[in-house]
Design brief:
The protein has a five-stranded mixed β-barrel with strand order 9-10-11-13-12. The protein has 28 helices and 14 strands. Helix 13 (354-381) packs antiparallel against helix 14 (384-406) and helix 16 (430-451) packs antiparallel against helix 22 (509-522). The radius of gyration is 29 Å and the shape is globular. It is of the alpha+beta class and 749 residues long.
Length: 749
Amino acid sequence: MPSHAESSLEAGLIALKQGNYQTAIAQLEPIAISQGNGTASLQAKVGLVMAYARSGKADKAIALCQSLIDSQNPQVKEWAERALTHLTKRKKNKESKNLETGFVAFDNSRSGNPQVAAASQTKPQKTKVAAVTPRNSTAVPPGSFQKTFIEKPAMPPGGFLGAGYTQIKEFGIYWRQAKRAKVWQPLRKPNLIPLRLLAAGTFIALFWVLREIIKFAMGLINYTLVKLPYLEPVQLLYRNPTHLLLIVLFVLVVLSPWLLDWLLASYGQRELHKDVLNNHSRETGRVLHRYCQQRHWPMPKLRILPIAAPIALTYGNLPRNARIVVSQGLLEQLADDEIATIYAAQLGHIAHLDFVVMSLVLLVTLPSYRLYQQVSQWGDKTNKIWRGPFTILASLFYGVWCFLTGTALWLSRLRLYYSDRLAAEITGNPNALTRALLKIAIGIAGDVQKTEHTSWQLESLNLLTPVGYQQSLSLGSVAGYLTFESILTWDNLNPYRRWLAINNTHPLIGDRIQRLCQIAQHWHIDTELHLTSQQSLSQQSLKVTRQSFLLQTAPFLGVPLGFLFAGLIWLLWQTAFSLKFLNLKWIYEDWSFVTGCLLIGFSIGMVIRMNSFFPDIKTTNVQTNDLLPNLLANPATIPIDSIQVHLVGKLLGRQGTSNSLAQDLILQSNTGLVKLHHISWLGQSGNLQDFIGRQITVTGWFRRGATPWIDIQTLQTQSGKTIHSPHPIWSTVLAVAAQAWGAYIFLMG
């Protein structure tokens, strides 16, 4: 494509994104005519359909869609058919209702009542518009006046639009804008016992981990003092810290609202005034006032964080001390009714009291994360001689943060099911909550793409947010290439999805939305997503065998099998000793041989899984960028399937000491984001961080789990520089080490 045509195409797409439809038409029409049936012409024609539709030229948009239906590109053809259906329906509705001139939001709900969208007079950067009820339509119940995104049918899936597509991607997401319930019956009261038990278990787990960390640190300090000359150990550090730690934790619970206010002030947290909230969502104020009045609560204190990514969280110890915090990005990227559902979900955390334990977890984890952040910054400023100790110390603090966060994983997942349910019941609008969750995922993915790394705030506050940042990467970035129903198929149909999400901070989005759809169906309203149609697929058609899952979990299954093996050995030895066949009982009286058996069982499981987990990568079998959305949508895959991929894109991630463990590596391909796993090799020339921000080619194994990722085999720059990630070698080393250690314990006691 000539350079002038390329620049005109880019200018047209930018004009379309900015809402300058006449300029977009003027730039794109010559390209659509002059470029034949090439990629540039398809890009221009798709953009023209959207520009025509939004500038009131429905006939031209329909005619161009009809020509695109004959395209040889199946992706373009599928999109054109879907767009033509909505354009035709909108035109008929407009003629039959004789609506005033203006933007008409596509509406695929059963009621068929169109809504006329008038451009919002508030902040110009938003793509929100206020929905106006037609004069002859049914009266709108209180609180349903809402904002809606003027986003249209999805762009064609795949990568044929290239870089130009990213310019208008946000316009390519189709929202059905399904209605809310006008009158609804309260849902059956949920059983809160599991949530209560899990909250208590989380407190116990947090206490135990903290105690072990403190005991280890105290022992290490005294051990060091003993080994050093002229120094004596501190006798106080030999005492049991259990009672003091319990007292400290209860004091932290009491002071958690004010301590977290102080900690989050460093993130820029400030008070959110009610008039500012009302400018974004009038319904939210009514929801908060009504629910708190029913419960005889004072209004929660409202806070805001100056963060572009859409997040929300709640902390405190009692309803009267509760704080609800949202980010600036959430207010700007969600519509009126969607913001209200997020606030209602935060009220759910207060009502169920799970926010008490989660506030304590956040209060304990934030200092360790801030230490990791601060030490990393010091390490980046120091010279190479001292960088090593700073790297070790930063990695240590990050590991402590991960351990402490891990104590609340189960509670973090379970509590969101309860809060989603209550949010739907408070607002009568499960569909708005569905849209809110998806838009949060899209916004988080967009923030990572814009900043080219995962921000400190996203990672450190992730445990309390409505949607996890890791699950948002792929889900939010491929939105527009595939329908949401297709993207969420894995979340709804894979028979082992819940087992594979066991180490995730958040439940599967598809699972949550499926429950919201069931609530909508219970109230006899149309659903935002038609996930029920996907359930017609039988589990047999998924072709996920039990053997594959057992192979996936072989190392972990080896641990209980090792325990059974230890029990069998103990029984045989006892029998032999009783019959005086063999007198080895004196060797095994300390029971340490059980630990050896567990390590041996784990090692055997690793070896069994090895070949299937890391098959040889052959160039004839690798998947390329264009098939990435399809890999995400395939409901039959699990990580053991080890799909071989060869992807080109940009390497994203944090720079410097903070990424010394390669914990923040992301590939931005032209079809979406995907997490990367890298293990460095001792003595390897080259630093992976030198590649961050550059175009790379990744070869490795794609794994579809609750969070999709790629285990890297090689990573190569355009200049030919290559870094290897020896996952199979390190797995072998781990298996051999576990086997040797287990055998030593087994034989030596």
